[in-house]
Amino acid sequence: MSNLGSLLLCSFSLFVAAGAFKAPSLPLREPLVPVRRGETAPNQALFFDMPLDHFGNATGMYKNRYWINDTYYKPGGPIFLFDSGEQDAEPLLPYYLQEYHGLSATMRLAKRYNGVAILWEHRYYGDSLPFPANENTTAEQWQFLTTDQALEDVVYFAKRFSLPSAGPGPFDNASGPSSEVRNNPLHPSNTPWIWLGGSYPGVRGALLRVRNPETIFAVWASSAPVHAQIDMAAYYKAAERSLKRNCSADWVAVTRFVDATLANGTATQAVDLKVKLLRAREDGVTREQAANTSDVDAAEILMDPLDFYQYYGFKDSVLPFCNVVETQNFTALPTETGLAASFGIDVALNAFLAGIKQVNYAAIPGTEPARGRAFSWMWQYCSEYGFYERGDPNDPLSIETSFRSLELYQEQCNMAFPQGLPSAPAVEHVNKYGGWNMTPSNVLFTNGEFDPWRTMGLASIESNSPQRTPSVAIPACNVAPTFPSFFGLTHDNMVHVSDLRVLLTPDANHTEFKTVGFYSPISQEPFYAGLGLFQLALDDWLPCFSAAKLGVSTSHRVEGTSFKELTMAL
Ligand SMILES: *[C@@H]1O[C@H](CO)[C@@H](O)[C@H](O)[C@H]1NC(C)=O
Ligand SMILES: *[C@@H]1O[C@H](CO)[C@@H](O)[C@H](O)[C@H]1NC(C)=O
Ligand SMILES: *[C@@H]1O[C@H](CO)[C@@H](O)[C@H](O)[C@H]1NC(C)=O
Ligand SMILES: *[C@@H]1O[C@H](CO)[C@@H](O)[C@H](O)[C@H]1NC(C)=O
Ligand SMILES: *[C@@H]1O[C@H](CO)[C@@H](O)[C@H](O)[C@H]1NC(C)=O
Ligand SMILES: *[C@@H]1O[C@H](CO)[C@@H](O)[C@H](O)[C@H]1NC(C)=O
Ligand SMILES: *[C@@H]1O[C@H](CO)[C@@H](O)[C@H](O)[C@H]1NC(C)=O
Ligand SMILES: *[C@@H]1O[C@H](CO)[C@@H](O)[C@H](O)[C@H]1NC(C)=O
Ligand SMILES: *[C@@H]1O[C@H](CO)[C@@H](O)[C@H](O)[C@H]1NC(C)=O
């Protein structure tokens, strides 16, 4: 994945400096273009004193950043926490907590249910840094970046959060804000905490509902790869499935040819080919530079057209490329079986490289690397998640170079973190919550039909997955749907987090992926389908929270309207 790829790739300058190949990447997330200061309502970040180590003996605290928007809040309303996951959360603020560019699901829900909206930043990202997260971070420092520590952060926070505007209330306690106070009206035993997250944050929501159902009452997990697996050759299956036959045949043929030439050709043949490959991306690359480029870096250029697949899907990101290739840049009619079969590999290779040059994937904006994030997420996948998007030479439809092997991923991990890593990612730290087999209650799982990450989610159709079936029938509150069914919706033709992304007002400037980079294009349909279904579920589930409260203890009961009434308010 070299471009969305190079997001992560570029940032690993330590490898380049070391003369080594660049790291393969895991593009889970799109960067947002920051909104200029002064264009949005002021919303000061807040900082929460967080213990560094929730489980061990290490002492120390750090400041964890978050933001709130209580514009719509009325006492008794729920909390909607939008988790930003593995990135600096600040650029998300105007989009997700302020609707700078149109609707956000979090703010729509806050409005409908009179709730408080929170944007939460994950430890080791943005300004929520126990330690600087960079190439100098030590194993002793990285050890506190684990799934469980980061989940416990939110549990710890939820039990101590109160609105700054409320001031020190009657629930406050001389021991200070960091102690848990159960008669705080916003404590999760008094107020439902509802989680929204897409991608890794969706995973976190689902895990929390298994791990801490007493703290997180309901979850919308969008495109959540809840099953951690080291070998993720499946990543490109979605793209492979959506390719037309001729383009698929050529992609496979060209990939095989490049792999074979670089592996088994003469040195001259290999360098000649590298020159061609590199010049498809950038004019004027010298022979020396080409000779200096590793096989994987050169072969990965064939995957450039896939960099945007996760966010734009086939039609917008890959089809334009295939059209250039199959028509040889619009100079000939496409054939049914493809160019390699009809005219030979040289014609196919040249057309393929012309396609990369013509679409100019490298010029697409919005691909600035985020340094800290790259290291932190790399630590997370090297230590726990795996998701090594390797090329599988045994897959006859593989369009990924086999130079991207499991061994290469592991080498990259070991090189970046010479100490502190297990010998292979400890996926059991994630899968102990159920993985593909999890059956949490009060969770909506949405997916995109062609999202590469669907393969690791509950809607996976991979042969080694349980192949569960989503159902839009709303399960009873606090009752797990019966396996293999789960409460969810798979959006036709959609890709990664198509629904929970910010909804931009469609306009001429925000429809072409080549001009807007990662900034926007989103269909309104999945947004409203996902939001609508989650609202229907909350309408059912929230009264159950109030009812449970009534049964438990009246003294902790929240004053004011019931959720049923709040629901009617809109
Ligand atoms: C924490 O303290 C306990 C009890 O003193 C000890 O058994 C354990 O090994 C310590 N854990 C770490 C990580 O130091
Ligand atoms: C809260 O959200 C509303 C609606 O999205 C927005 O207009 C407002 O600017 C936000 N306020 C703050 C302080 O972020
Ligand atoms: C890491 O340490 C090296 C050597 O001390 C230093 O030159 C470099 O600036 C440090 N990097 C960061 C991001 O602090
Ligand atoms: C105040 O907090 C302390 C420490 O957590 C606790 O022991 C005590 O019971 C609390 N007092 C009240 C009135 O909540
Ligand atoms: C290189 O040649 C060897 C021996 O014939 C073969 O096993 C291997 O698959 C070839 N490599 C590639 C990438 O084609
Ligand atoms: C190629 O690599 C060598 C050895 O690492 C280095 O000295 C040289 O500057 C590199 N050349 C280019 C053009 O990058
Ligand atoms: C061949 O390629 C063209 C251009 O991408 C496409 O429109 C057509 O559907 C393809 N035909 C087959 C049989 O794959
Ligand atoms: C493709 O065709 C266009 C229009 O004729 C031309 O401007 C462009 O240079 C061609 N691209 C390549 C990579 O050959
Ligand atoms: C945005 O769209 C308008 C027309 O709707 C156009 O005039 C303007 O040039 C576009 N801006 C950019 C940066 O493309």
TrEMBL record:
**What is this protein identified as?**
Serine carboxypeptidase S28-domain-containing protein
State the superkingdom: Eukaryota
Q: Which residues form the signal peptide?
A: 1-18
Q: Which GO terms describe its molecular function?
A: carboxypeptidase activity; dipeptidyl-peptidase activity; serine-type exopeptidase activity
Q: Which UniProt keywords apply?
A: Carboxypeptidase, Glycoprotein, Hydrolase, Protease, Signal
Name the InterPro entries for this protein. AB_hydrolase_fold (IPR029058), Peptidase_S28 (IPR008758)
Tell me its family: Belongs to the peptidase S28 family.
Biological process terms in GO annotation: proteolysis
A Pfam family found in this protein is Peptidase_S28
